[in-house]
Amino acid sequence: MTGLPPDFLARPFAHRGLHDAAAGVVENSRAAFAAAIAAGYGIELDVQMSRDGVPVVFHDDRLDRLTAATGPVRERDWEDLAGIALEGSTDRIERLDAILAMIGDRAPVLVEIKDQHGPGADAGAPDQATGHVVRDARADHGARVAVMSFNPGYVRALSWLPPDIPRGLTTTAADDYPDRLPPE
What we know:
The structure is a single chain. This protein is an alpha/beta fold. Helices cover 27% and strands 17% of the residues. Strands 1, 2, 3, 4, 5, 6 and 7 form a seven-stranded mixed sheet that branches. Helix 4 (96-103) runs parallel beside helix 5 (126-141). The radius of gyration is 16 Å and the shape is globular.
């Protein structure tokens, strides 16, 4: 595939879901994704890795901003993360596979693999775990998904994904990664 399918280009996307913290709808939550689907939007969501290799839907590398817990997401096992509520809502941190099953084929989804260690670093294969979840969600639930990351190594390492699952590089200024941006 050389680009995104037409349904990824035909509608706006709700960044981290259609969230409104004042109304108790927190970013990257079930409620935010349900609101995006109801509004007819596509969904962008973020993936961090738990210590035990489970892709979870959460933007920040630390828990502090959106939960009462503190510290890096990657230093907790999935079982610990599952019990953490998103502040100001009834939602909790969720596994990527559960969210993609919930969304199914009702909206296109851009899955951004967050880079916990910097471009070019081996971060314990978050790309591979996420790739398997995305591939399975498409097969099992008809999920319409594309995968992206700021880390070019993650995107390159997902070349095994079927060609109808687009993958791409999210970019920023090279100055944001002085001395750490790999040549590719």
